[in-house]
């Protein structure tokens, strides 16, 4: 990858896939929730981050299109196809985790939620990719590191997607997920 713009397509494709799998796995629980953790102040990160703002612009959105009171939320949840802050995928309430059948399912869900965070770690010094606020600083991002973590996240996504269908993880699958699990508190 030669520039940050080269990351936009594969990142947005991964995020879209993650969003779709999470909806498939959790929409019955999240759709019934009346105490949603989604808040407009979290949505602001999408407009503050130079990288996430680029993703919004790919969708034809501008920062001032965000509702001041509700952020990007509508009656069906977040209206963004991609460009959400990673925290939007990382948080799992206790009820959501309790509905999963076993610990392996819970770990897989948490890894799925950490994939975008994993991609952006240490993109510029100690800063996460979404913490880079100035567009000109995006040119200084460690593209090699971000690209490597993006590939790790894509491989882990494929493992989790297969697990969601089959209910089985091989030893090789666990090794792929371990690259991400190390980041889970």
Task: Characterise this structure.
There is one protein chain. The protein has 185 residues and is mainly alpha-helical. The chain has one domain. 57% of the residues lie in helices and 2% in strands. The chain contains 8 helices and 2 strands; from the N terminus they run H-H-H-E-E-H-H-H-H-H. The protein has helices at 5-30, 40-48, 50-58, 87-90, 94-98, 103-120, 143-166, 171-181; strands at residues 73-74, 77-78. Strand 1 and strand 2 form a beta hairpin. The longest helix has 26 residues, at 5-30. It starts with a helix and ends with a helix. The mean pLDDT is 89.
Write the topology of this structure.
Layout: H1 5-30, H2 40-48, H3 50-58, E1 73-74, E2 77-78, H4 87-90, H5 94-98, H6 103-120, H7 143-166, H8 171-181
Structure at a glance:
By secondary structure, the chain is mostly helical.
Q: What are the main properties of this structure?
A:
single chain, 185 residues, mainly alpha, 8 helices, 57% helix
Strand order, main sheet: write it out.
1-2
Q: Please summarize the sheet with the most strands.
A: 2 strands, antiparallel
The averaged pLDDT comes out at 89
Element pattern in H and E: HHHEEHHHHH
Q: State the share of residues found in helices, binned by percent.
A: 55-70%
Give the uncertain stretches in residue-range form: none
How many helical stretches? 8
Taken as a percent bin, the fraction of beta residues is under 5%
Global geometry: globular
> What structural class should be given to the helix and strand makeup?
mainly alpha
How many domain units?
A: 1
* Spatial separation of the terminal alpha carbons: 30 Å
| Cα Rg | 16 Å
Q: How many beta-strand elements?
A: 2
């Amino acid at each position: 990858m030669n520039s940050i713009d080269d990351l936009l397509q594969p990142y947005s494709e991964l995020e879209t896939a993650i969003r779709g799998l999470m909806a498939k796995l959790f929409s019955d629980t999240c759709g019934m929730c009346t105490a949603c953790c989604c808040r407009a102040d979290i949505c602001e990160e999408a407009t503050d981050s130079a990288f996430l703002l680029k993703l919004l612009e790919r969708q034809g959105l501008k920062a001032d299109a965000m509702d001041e009171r509700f952020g990007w939320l509508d009656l069906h949840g977040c209206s963004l196809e991609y460009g959400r802050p990673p925290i939007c995928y990382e948080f799992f309430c206790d009820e959501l985790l309790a509905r999963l059948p076993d610990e392996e399912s819970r770990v897989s869900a948490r890894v799925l939620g950490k994939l975008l965070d994993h991609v952006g770690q240490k993109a510029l010094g100690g800063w996460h990719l979404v913490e880079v606020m100035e567009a000109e600083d995006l040119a200084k991002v460690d593209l090699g590191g971000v690209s490597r973590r993006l590939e790790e996240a894509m491989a882990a996504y494929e493992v989790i997607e297969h697990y969601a269908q089959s209910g089985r993880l091989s030893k090789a699958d666990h090794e792929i997920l371990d690259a991400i699990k190390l980041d889970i508190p």
